[in-house]
Automatic annotation (TrEMBL), chains A, B:
This is Aminoacyl-transfer RNA synthetases class-II family profile domain-containing protein. Residues 171-533 form the Aminoacyl-transfer RNA synthetases class-II family profile domain. It comes from the Eukaryota. InterPro entries: Aa-tRNA-synt_II, aa-tRNA-synth_II, aa-tRNA-synth_II/BPL/LPL, Asp-tRNA-ligase_1, Asp-tRNA-ligase_1_N, Asp/Asn-tRNA-synth_IIb, GAD-like_sf, NA-bd_OB-fold. GO terms for cellular component: mitochondrion. Gene3D superfamilies: Bira Bifunctional Protein, Domain 2, GAD-like domain, Nucleic acid-binding proteins. Belongs to the class-II aminoacyl-tRNA synthetase family. Type 1 subfamily.
Amino acid sequence: MLGRITLQRCSTTLATFVRCCPLSAQANSFTYRTHTCGELRRHHAGEKVTVCGWVEFNRLNRFVVIRDAYGHVQAFVPDGQESISAAVKNITYESVVKVTGTVTERADKHKNPKMVTGDVQVDIDSFEVLNTAPATLPVSLRKETEVSSDSALRLKYRYLDLRKPQMQQILRFRANLVHRMRRYLTEEASFVEVETPTLFRRTPGGAAEFVVPAGKPNIGRFYSLPQSPQQFKQLLMVGGLDRYFQVARCYRDEGSKLDRQPEFTQVDLELSFTNQEGVIALIEQLVCQSWPDEMTELRPSAPFERMTYADAMRLYGVDKPDLRVNWQIEDISASLSSLKKESNDDWCARVIVAKGAAKSLSSKWRKEAKRLIGMNKFAQPFAVCTLKDDPLFKAALSNQDFLREKLNLQEEDAAVICWGTPADVQKTLGQLRTLLIEATGVRNQKKMVFLWVVDFPLFDREEDDQLVSAHHPFTAPAPGQERLLFDGNPEEITAQHYDLVLNGVEVGGGSIRIHDAATQRHVLKNILREDST
Amino acid sequence: MLGRITLQRCSTTLATFVRCCPLSAQANSFTYRTHTCGELRRHHAGEKVTVCGWVEFNRLNRFVVIRDAYGHVQAFVPDGQESISAAVKNITYESVVKVTGTVTERADKHKNPKMVTGDVQVDIDSFEVLNTAPATLPVSLRKETEVSSDSALRLKYRYLDLRKPQMQQILRFRANLVHRMRRYLTEEASFVEVETPTLFRRTPGGAAEFVVPAGKPNIGRFYSLPQSPQQFKQLLMVGGLDRYFQVARCYRDEGSKLDRQPEFTQVDLELSFTNQEGVIALIEQLVCQSWPDEMTELRPSAPFERMTYADAMRLYGVDKPDLRVNWQIEDISASLSSLKKESNDDWCARVIVAKGAAKSLSSKWRKEAKRLIGMNKFAQPFAVCTLKDDPLFKAALSNQDFLREKLNLQEEDAAVICWGTPADVQKTLGQLRTLLIEATGVRNQKKMVFLWVVDFPLFDREEDDQLVSAHHPFTAPAPGQERLLFDGNPEEITAQHYDLVLNGVEVGGGSIRIHDAATQRHVLKNILREDST
């Protein structure tokens, strides 16, 4: 079997809700600071401390706020300290400083309840500038980080962007999540982490792989960077290492997408002597047991919900439905038959009633939806309307009160209607549903809905009538369907393949492998017509 | 600061002594086996079990030994089970089988005390062949693994080679060691693991890097695979992430060596606001705290021994001396002055008295030592002799009893003598010392000697008189020596660089970085004459 969890997607999805502030006494071990900027409290008053960090703010050249990854604290220039005063006067924001001084409790009226260290300040004895920042920085560290804002500039000055608390939190959150996954797999489930090579030979028929020319003495030959450790881990299973995992770097020369860069990382695992239920249970345990403490209230419980691929496509138009809202596709072909052209044999009209979505239908959103749907080759005509809209379909509908009565549409709801060939209508509605969910701001709700999508088809048929693997040629048919490989219609076979979906994002998945050499050879040679030698 | 531990060297050095046998109840979770082949004991008698594994042995077609990564167990074909009997008769060694049956205690005379499961057997109810191995295997799994034996064949059939218990142990040992290091760094020392990119831009002046042509839309441009995450982690420090580590894949297009392949892995870490003592203490804690349970008796204790680079070169002729033996270099120029040619101004003769090494001086070893030393461009004439040798130097020595009286050589000792220019004599003796240590079999002694080598020179002078960095241009001078960068002899500067040596192998090291931009610019531009823009 195979399982994987794509880390970037998973941690990006989870990290939306995280506001963790690391606070750890060990953070000062092996350094010359005594405390982090985030940990000083009233009970430290009277202690001589050293803190190091970045100059966040300077008020009146007497109050300097120093920030590090753990928080911030105010340092104070005592009267008569001329040289410190001069240094503070010249300091630029984001310069790196080392401050030694005595912690004192602030007078009540000067306490800052918005600052966790706001009860105290450090009266400076020594103020050492470790490095001076330029007076003007190319990016502002004051603004909240938005993904879209100046992304090129943010990447160019990545070392400044990383100083933002949100970026620090995402890096720490991810590290923590992966560490918990490792602890679960290693300590609770007896898996062995093995590092497999990344300089590999090219996979025939593989998607876009990066190629690496070899140096001496192999000039003229090439390595290739693997898209996943798939072949290596199968060899490990053959080699008797029956419980393998790896936090594995994968490479795909397909350009950057928002959720996948040319190199990305997945928790990659493989287990011998198991079946689909075993792997699903394992991954559910992995997710639940390594769930971050910072979001206990959102921890899912096993078993997760399941849905067949056929149901997902029928009800939601996508193979990774976002179930935070329960809007489903319904057929209204009979009511909208006037839209049908006589030449259309294979025609339908379908609707999604999007409860509560009316307020999200800005004209900007409508325009963007039209543009995005128009880019699909399977695009179908569609309409998005509310009761307030001048009903677009009035003329077409046999019943004037179609929206209100047939669909039971309320003032606050929206109806997404699409018509054309069934397959394309489904896909179009699936996309519109996703776009509309995004617009409703459900992303900001504290909600985590996990879903297994199962029973995928094993093969798809290409336009030239050749069968191709829906996922990859090593996936096993569902138990009891093996014989259909030999004397049935392979298109009817469902695969032992399963995807894990979180809030509409495919965060993981896997499949049971064909372990019988003769069956594998048959699939490659007789069904896929690939060179299996 | 920077620190790193090269994993392959470290785990290869440590794994020499490991004989761990994984035994874990969780190893059966999520599988259809009930037990591993290594865990059945007398108290399981009467239980119905399923084990899966590889056919190790077949006696009389009735007793089949099944092996998995956790051990092996005997399965027994009961009387009258014709179909099982037939299957067992046809089974080939290394075929994969699933066996269900009842655990029974063997009669006392049939118990096998050499086998941990030797008190019991599994009386077979069902014998399923999951996959059949060919009758003849290309490599034998019976032999003990030796590094040198048929290495090409072993690599070609890696999936068979990995089935050997020793290979399984090395993989598991390494995984365990790395997991303990991660736990220490994350949980005890508040470090954050960050994955840095491996598709990077080329470092000017870097050693042989692998180059990766970019695909669309960047055709004609190139990535490069980094030799280490050095630049990324420095950016992380600038970005305020003050305690970073990574188990990092590194790439060097320099061909394979026994202890370094084109891609290798190191535990890579960086810490802000620290000094050399801080980093050394951190790495000592990392090593001691993550020390494997399987070899507690060899656990080192901090602080480790230290030695200056100058002393290492003077006493041992290498910068990574193996201190499992205390043989040191001594000067005997005066005694051997008759070997000196008049033209030699800069001449010396030196000796290592290798206590107890006489028995290791086979003629094969002498021949091989001569060949290896002869390959050096700095090779100097040398002799290796014992009291039993017809003394090679009799004529040359003013005192006939030189070996016995001056060097206090005993019957069991060897003397390694070399003469020529001091620098080359040191290097030659250093190499001969290492070769002789190997020959004495000290490798098989249970002994772990850690050593810090410190106070390396910051710069070396090239033949064209240009100064170059002894390690890399970002290394800081020792405290108090900064001014020598500007108005002194840079060759006299010692660096804040330190290597960790284990049994003569450099397993790690690090350096404090220059954090001041003006100093760094001065080093690059005025001392190294590099383009620092």
